[in-house]
């Protein structure tokens, strides 16, 4: 059964949800169990990962003979109901939430993908971005492959099918040699659930256990949500196989030095997640402490732009001794659909999302902590809102360094042209957004927030241009339309 109810394109609204933040491509969740309600557990797992993608959601299940699928555009509770989940029965499941980077925002591009191939059926869910996708697709098409979507994920499926003369494990191992870029994959056959992390470990993937059953997820918060125990992170270049015999592991021959995306800690991941040995909330608090060491401000209060700036703001307050207050209230009930304000009402659009608490702000000198300024489209509006609420002085502090380079590994920053830090100097950005002071955490200071490893353990290419994987000239330009 392949269910896909909506074939019309859907575009994420501009202004309110498409704000001055980077967006990550997606989140994945998988579970193997003969006894549990795998569809509902996957539903709850995806709910916990909803922050990683709000365009589409899907779940595929296998009963040992066939794979059933339901996916559609929208948030997890919009795509699934009790009747749909009751039909998704089996012994293993994979799920996906998506924000598009490669491939248009169309229902046909929703994941997981489920296809027939020479050895049966295969389902696949992917988080990341393949940089040599254009060359791989041309090669596959020349050898007879036919594509139905604009996804790099479909290229991965076809690549695995091409190598499937022997075992699925061998096919994945061979595919990893060809694939360049970032990927955390969940692959499901009729009888196996397989997790794969790219050789650099750019995108996160972890393994958990619920009773005697095993779970794979983009973040550990999804394990917590369903009552599963975190076992460990999947290692870079590792293939984890879950079947009726339990868990086994293979290592790719092209495993490289770990380069976890540092933006997972700055912005993408939920604060309660643990990734590669670091708790996200604690790292963000340390970023705030480092900001306080780098930038001294004579102010009355520290506030955050919620929610991802809150942990760093608390860290700044702890280190500086300046009180932290909740100065902006976030409206958490804004869904995917709403009446989009006109261009002349952008200030109202910001207030729909954030509203100042006037008695806290009036007459105060503020440090305002945010996680990033990428395009500079909303920071100025927020500062004007704070001044309208009576703030006397505003210092904007940012817990990421200036974003100076495009990302080709799964963040929707495809060109340098859209980056404000490329177009303007720091003092020009300060004047542009209307702040009295502006400071970004230094790259060296950011890396100090991790008590192990060092810069070599993280991908910081968007800050310094040092890409761990060679970027083809056509990367970011090839669009499958």
Please summarize what this structure is.
28% of the residues lie in helices and 25% in strands. With 481 residues, the protein is an alpha+beta fold. The chain folds into two domains: 2-256, Aminohydrolase, N-terminal nucleophile (Ntn) domain (Glutamine Phosphoribosylpyrophosphate, subunit 1, domain 1), CATH 3.60.20.10; 278-462, Rossmann fold (3-Layer(aba) Sandwich).
Task: Provide structural commentary.
- The chain has 481 residues and is an alpha+beta fold.
- The protein has two domains: 2-256, Aminohydrolase, N-terminal nucleophile (Ntn) domain (Glutamine Phosphoribosylpyrophosphate, subunit 1, domain 1), CATH 3.60.20.10; 278-462, 3-Layer(aba) Sandwich (Rossmann fold).
- Helices cover 28% and strands 25% of the residues.
- It contains 17 helices and 24 strands.
- An eight-stranded mixed β-sheet has the order 1-4-3-5-2-11-10-12. It has a six-stranded antiparallel β-sheet with strand order 6-7-8-9-13-14, with helices on one face. A four-stranded parallel β-sheet has the order 18-21-22-23, with helices on both faces.
- Helix 4 (133-142) packs across helix 5 (152-162) and helix 9 crosses helix 10 (310-320).
- The longest helix is centred in the middle third of the chain and has 15 residues, at 280-294.
- It is globular.
- Mean pLDDT is 88; it is low at 1-18 and 477-481.
